[in-house]
């Protein structure tokens, strides 16, 4: 009977959004903005938040919910400590995976679950007075996939990201128009592309964007049999391509960091890959590490988002949040819109309105119905 009562109480606590020891409760927000796929928005705002608070988007795994991630991840407690707001999006899809496969969700302002989430950012800025330069994103498994997707599709909105056991943005892309489709080829680690190819997959998700991409940490377990460990390599190649780093030659490798058996490879200020030996699906959330990476705690913060990451040597832990989003443009010719697409650039595909000719000696090759590339 006592056990039954405890279970019932636990259930009631979850239902009411209460978690013992927190200063506030989980609240649902409706009508936050355009939300074509009906993504749920749940918010944990501590009783006391900092002026112009930071926001962390914390995105749940398949079968999870906003409520489950709220009570099962450390971010609400950390919000109480550091005075930020946590937003827990809740998947509208059956099985509650995130749509990281449709053309819409993988394209800037084109719809899908990513678009609904992106519109929670403006709501948080206007309603909570949130700092636009300190909107962070993290997630586990399907939520980790969505975190990579948000960084690729809405790089303008997010300041830094932390990814627990996901796949590269675009790796779950469906070539058959699938929404929220499972992609076994990617899950099983059989999708492999070069850094340059992944970088152009990312750029094609927000054509014409010349601003900075969020610094990102990628965690993955070596014993992951849901999303095979090869996916860490693809994530690293993807963002190394975007930032201009060499995915094959990390600048620094730290053994037993942050935990015994974890190896942290630092490719540059904007990218870290953390391989967790013997860990399956998913890597446990390293809340304190996230607090450092997002700049709430000294020691290892991501640099303020800026262009030209490969040559940036910013290592300050105090400037994050005080900088305004950069307005400089990337100077590499590959990202400058021209009437002719350059090597690796998109040159066709459904919905493509840019240049369809390629600069010599490259030719436009159809990779899938949505994407042709100068190769
Ligand atoms: C899975 O994704 C890859 C790209 O990562 C793509 O080439 C493949 O066609 C996708 N599979 C399906 C069934 O859509």
UniProtKB/TrEMBL annotation:
Transmembrane segments: none annotated. It is an enzyme of class 3 (hydrolase). SUPFAM superfamilies: alpha/beta-Hydrolases. The keyword Nucleotide-binding does not apply. It is found in: Secreted. Its EC number is 3.1.1.-. Belongs to the carbohydrate esterase 1 (CE1) family. PANTHER family: FERULOYL ESTERASE (PTHR43037:SF5), UNNAMED PRODUCT-RELATED (PTHR43037). This is Carboxylic ester hydrolase. It comes from Mycena albidolilacea. The lineage of its organism: Eukaryota, Fungi, Dikarya, Basidiomycota, Agaricomycotina.
